[in-house]
Write a structure and sequence with these properties.
9 strands, globular, TIM Barrel, nine-stranded mixed sheet
Length: 252
Amino acid sequence: MSNQEKYNFDDFTQDEYRKLLKIAKKNYVFKGYNNYVNEDSFVIWRHDIDFNPYYALELAKIEQEEKVHATYFILLHSNLYNLLSVSNKKIINEIIGLGHTVGLHFDSAYYNVQNEIELESALTFEKELLEKMFNISINSFSFHINTPFTMQCEKLSYAGMINSYSAYFKTEVEYCSDSYGYWRFRRLEDVLSNTKDKNLHILTHPEWWQETVKSPLQRLHDCVNKQTEEMIKGDSEILKSINREYQYIDWK
């Protein structure tokens, strides 16, 4: 069996993503972390933006067209994107403008967090920073790359934010994730189609969902290349606006 078959490469296109949303709408009600209580057959659909907000905006547009809601967790310490850049801030504002919710994707390793007191302090700092940046309320968070310590942090909320890794979401809601560009447990289409699961908690990472079928490694390389393209494009527009005669010079 090839890796394409073994890891379901064909699942991870934007057309397939739309198909999955259509299946989900038939069987579940889309809810957020602030309004799922007492709802039967709900799905909370979450995105962790690890590598490139550009692909998050592509999925946000599809979701808006399909009239569903998702939560986008944004990372302050990504090695691949700068949340403070003009282009990325614009993208996040566009996602908000499409009716979606933004949450905090929190990297505990950045602070070497060792206990819940330190966790509360660091979460509060990043929550307030994002709220000021985007003039919104941040009401939920997800951990970026869980550690043995964060897996023990199972309270429903910390620092005034719903914890997507709380005991409730671990034990009471069926979970499906596309981490590292493949289905870690069950295929999402199978999960959505099998209505024996009363409630769902779906995690997708936008970088894995692109226009054509590719391997996860190819998709990751495309994320890096896309960031480079956007940087050059943005800088070139600035240089043009100030009438710089020379921009980035190639061999020809």
